[in-house]
Amino acid sequence: MATKKRYHVSFNYSYCKRCGICYWLCPTKTITKGELGKPQVIDHDTCIGCLMCENSCPDFAIDIQEVSEAVTENA
Length: 75
Known about the structure:
Blueprint: E1 6-11, H1 21-25, E2 31-33, E3 39-41, H2 52-56, E4 62-67
Antiparallel strand pairs: 1-4, 2-3
């Protein structure tokens, strides 16, 4: 059974100039416009890991990491 990969979107707000490219490009609208144009993520589970936001950010302020879950085996 294949499981859906999960991703975590993080922002370095000290680099971010709130240009809006990330939430404009996000195909799943995982990144949305927050207060004063600050990008935010409400639900990380909607991220598909396409990296469009990370690759398009002119300030290198976005980092997408795959979330690895601990696998437990029944003995």
